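User: Second chain of the day. Same drill as before.
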Amino acid sequence: MKIAIILGSTRPGRKGEAVARWVLAKAKERPDADYELIDLLDHPLPHLDEAVSASRGVYTNDHTKAWSATIAAYDGFVFVTPEYNHSTSGVLKNAIDYLYAEWNNKAAAFVSYGALGGARAIEHLRAICSELQLAHVRQQLSFSLFTDFENFAEFAPSPMHDDAASVLFDQLESWAGALKTIR
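Assistant: Same format as last time:
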């Protein structure tokens, strides 16, 4: 099984890179799936510029075709998202909106960070994923800027997140494996 950890922030000074690398390090300890990091900085997509809805699967732009091939290769996803204005980042929403079938019948988990742990960003991502037929697991990781970052800058997660991460990966791998049988 292949699972992508999608870093959903491209903002200068972003906190998400440290969070995503921590998630990747925890995931690499697991034997039942191959985890890879996808940094949206490496996949610069303009604001959605396809004329036809992604649900039709008609892509005209090379950047869309490349993004499609990237996402289609995975069985599941861990979305690492900041919380901006009570939601996820615009760049992550845009990257998700570019595709449809590539997300279908796959599994997703969520890792967020923000003043309130990014919980509201996850709420919005759950609704988006439901529309894309992307099954999302219950367990989530939410990192607080107040307690999981030293001086609001350096990522220093509380050890309590280790057990929660294990549950998240267990659920994600289970669902990704099950959904693979119907694709």
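The radius of gyration is 16 Å.

User: Great, on to the next one.
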